[in-house]
């Protein structure tokens, strides 16, 4: 039986098409960004989502050094308000929020914007049978697309 501590280091829990990139990100965090402490697979998954969302870590402000972020737990918190980190989190002028939502679904990671503007990325630990209620509710991109298409079709019918 896998413990919760061991489970956050299971590459098998990452979406299959992202596994190689997750392993590469883990190595990058350790070697290039000199992260203090261990980097878990869960942390590397969150880092990969963050990297894709921002279009590279070079878009992180200097007040948020990559090496100081805790990449070993289930949740990764990127402090933003006091650090000048603002990736365009509106739904009208920019695509930052939409992109974050789509990437979160692709990566099977819960993205949360806290009231003080911190960005929190959560991975839900899997239960013994390989599922978790939060993961079960988290739609894949295909399911999300189908749901959006149905909403659009309903809107079209009511015109």
Gyration radius, in Å: 17 Å
Q: What's the story with the biggest beta sheet?
A: 3 strands, antiparallel
Structural class given helices, strands, pairing? mainly alpha
Helix and strand pattern: HHHEHEEHH
Helical stretch tally = 6
Strands of the widest sheet, in order across it, are: 1-3-2
Low-confidence stretches: none
Shape descriptor: globular
Q: What proportion of the residues is helical, as a percent range? A: 40-55%
Strand content: 5-15%
Taken together, the total number of domains comes to 1
| Cα distance spanning the termini | 54 Å
Mean pLDDT metric: 78
Compute the number of strand runs: 3
Keywords:
159 residues, mainly alpha, 3 strands, 41% helix, globular
Short summary:
The protein has 159 residues and is mostly helical.
Walkthrough of the structure:
With 159 residues, the protein is mainly α. The chain has one domain. The chain has 6 helices and 3 strands; from the N terminus they run αααβαββαα. A 3-stranded antiparallel beta sheet has the order 1-3-2, covered by helices on one side. β2 (110-113) and β3 form a beta hairpin. The mean pLDDT is 78.
